[in-house]
Specification:
Length: 274
C-alpha cells in the first residue's frame, strides 16, 4: 500500500496531532554506488507516535540516523520546524538504542545528571555552581521517578536488570526535554513481560510530555499497538543484476485510530515486514 492511507480518528492522546515538525523532501541516501534510501517524501506532525517497520536492509536505521543528525542526505532536504536539519546531534532530539547506552561507572542519578551537566558546561561536563547543581539534581530525580527508578538513585547499571537499564536510558534521553524522541529497537532485548511494562511506560511518557516519537521495530504487532502511524520501508524497484541500484522508500503509510490499533496489522503487510 502506498503512502497516504488515513485511518485517523481519536489518537492515543485523545486528540489530533499538531503542526508539522519534521519534513522529508525527496530524500536520497547513497554510499558510493549503493542506494539505501530513495524518494522519501513525508511529513511528521508534532505529537505523532510513528512506528517504522520493514525487512532487514530496508533503510530503517538510516532513516533514524537522518532524524538524529548522525548523517545527512545525499540528495534532498530534511526540515525541522521548517529549518533545514544539519547533520549534527542536538538536544532537541533524544535517542534510546536497543543496547543499553548508559555509563557503567556512574550511578543512575549520575547518568541522568551527566546530560544536564554537559548541556550546561560542554567543555567541563560538570556543573560547578551549587544552585545550578542542586537544580539539575532535582530535575534528574524527577525524571528517574517518572520512569520508575526513584528508589534506585545510587544503583550502578551492573546492578540493574535489562528493563531497569532501558528505563535509565529513557530518563537520560528525556531529561533534556527533546522535541523528538527516537527509539531504535528499544525493547528487542527484553523479556516479554518486561516489554509489556516498557510499552505502558513509553506510552504514558509520550502522552504526559507531549512528545513526538519515531520508533524502529521489527515487531509489527508492537508497531500497531504503540503507534498512531505506521511507516513500512521497502524497495519498490528491484534489479536482480544490480541489487544496490535502487533504494527503499516508504511503501506503506497509515495513520491509526484506536480501533485500527486494536485490530492489529492487516494481511497486506505480511509481504513487507519480515
Amino acid at each position: 500500500m502506498a503512502g497516504g492511507t488515513d485511518m485517523t480518528g481519536d489518537t492515543a492522546t485523545g486528540g489530533p496531532p499538531g503542526g508539522v515538525i519534521l519534513s522529508f523532501r525527496d530524500v536520497w541516501v547513497e554510499y558510493g554506488d549503493k542506494v539505501v534510501l530513495e524518494r522519501v517524501a513525508l511529513d511528521i506532525a508534532q505529537g505523532e507516535f510513528v512506528s517504522v517497520v520493514g525487512p532487514s536492509g530496508a533503510g530503517k536505521s538510516t532513516f533514524l540516523r537522518l532524524v538524529l543528525g548522525q548523517e545527512g542526505p545525499t540528495r534532498g532536504q530534511i526540515l525541522l520546524d521548517g529549518t533545514e536539519l544539519t547533520p549534527e546531534c542536538s538536544p532537541d532530539r533524544g535517542v534510546v538504542f536497543q543496547r543499553y547506552s548508559v555509563f557503567p561507572h556512574l550511578t543512575a542519578l549520575g547518568n541522568v545528571m551527566f546530560g544536564l551537566e554537559c548541556a550546561a558546561s560542554p567543555l567541563l561536563g560538570k556543573l560547578l555552581g551549587g544552585a545550578r547543581r542542586r537544580a539539575a539534581r532535582e530535575e534528574a530525580v524527577r525524571m528517574l521517578e517518572a520512569v520508575g527508578l526513584g528508589h534506585n538513585l545510587d544503583v550502578y547499571p551492573a546492578q540493574m536488570s535489562g528493563g531497569m537499564q532501558q528505563r535509565l536510558a529513557l530518563a537520560q534521553a528525556l531529561v533534556k526535554h527533546p522535541r523528538v524522541l527516537l527509539l531504535d529497537e528499544p525493547f528487542g532485548a527484553l523479556d516479554p513481560g518486561i516489554r509489556l511494562d516498557m510499552h505502558e511506560l513509553v506510552g504514558g511518557l509520550w502522552q504526559e510530555h507531549g512528545l513526538t516519537i519515531v520508533m524502529v521495530t521489527h515487531d509489527i504487532n508492537e508497531a500497531f499497538k504503540l503507534g498512531t502511524r505506521v511507516l513500512a520501508f521497502d524497495k519498490r524497484r528491484h534489479d536482480p543484476h544490480a541489487p544496490n541500484r535502487y533504494g527503499a522508500t516508504a511503501v506503506y503509510d497509515v495513520k491509526l485510530d484506536r480501533k485500527a490499533r486494536e485490530a492489529g496489522p492487516p494481511a497486506e503487510l505480511a509481504g513487507v515486514v519480515t
